Amino acid sequence: MPESSEATITLVGDLHARPAGALAVAAGQFTSTVQVSVSGGGSGGGQADAKSVLAVMQLGASSGQQVTVRAVGPDADKAVETLVGILAGVSKAGD
Amino acid sequence: MAARVGIVLVSHSASLAEGTAELAGQVGGGTVTIATAGGTDDGRLGTSIDKVAAAIRLADGGAGVVILPDLGSSVLTVRTLLADDRDDLPGPLEVADAPFVEGAVAAVVTAAAGGSLQAVLDAAQEARNARKL
To answer: What value does the mean pLDDT take over residues A47-71?
Structure first.
């Protein structure tokens, strides 16, 4: 049974192109499959492969929404920790 | 850090190629070499086989290069160059059948993550399925 991990964070800024890129670049370094899903408030919703920058951008995740990161695989814990760290760094200013 | 796959953007317009490279470079975090071949040798709209060859050499970091042409004769120029099988070009080289902006962004992000030549090519080509709305 593969390792799995999950964590949820509330965004304080919008998930624009650059943070989406940072998220996908980081996710791509892990062996685990990683999904991000969005719920609560604002526009957008659904889930995306965290390794696909275009899919992450298409989520349209915005300030105040909850983003859940789920990983399954040998480095799932580290993947979730890293990606939640990036999401926590998304600033109000955005870009 | 292992060598990254390089990216070449071929456009009829130098400013379109450079702007796309700027955007993709920012989204990808700046660790991937993106070379552009935009416009003709005398600066008009069009494509230049010599510019494409120079861009491929610039983009090569030892892990291969994915080339994204924009439209029509950009594709023809790239295919003509590769069909010549020139020994002054590094390899391996792949041409992506992909939307220009989305494909460039997806390719650069995947290359930045350390993706293989095939993974970078696939990311670019899967970009045609990405919805905006």
So the answer is: 95
Contact A88, A94 (CB under 8 A): no
Q: Does ipTM top 0.95?
A: no
Q: Active-site residue numbers of B?
A: 12
The encoded tokens of residue B42 equal 């005398």
Of A21, A26, A58, the CB nearest to B131: A58
* B7 and B35 Cβ atoms separated by less than 8 Å: yes
Per-residue CA distances from A53 to A27, A40, B15, B24, B37 (Å): 10, 21, 24, 11, 24
Q: Which two tokens stand for residue B109?
A: 């992000």
pTM over 0.90: yes
Name the residue facing A29 among B106, B113, B127 (closest C-beta): B113
Instruction: Tell me if chain B has a CB within 8 Å of the CB of A17.
Output: yes
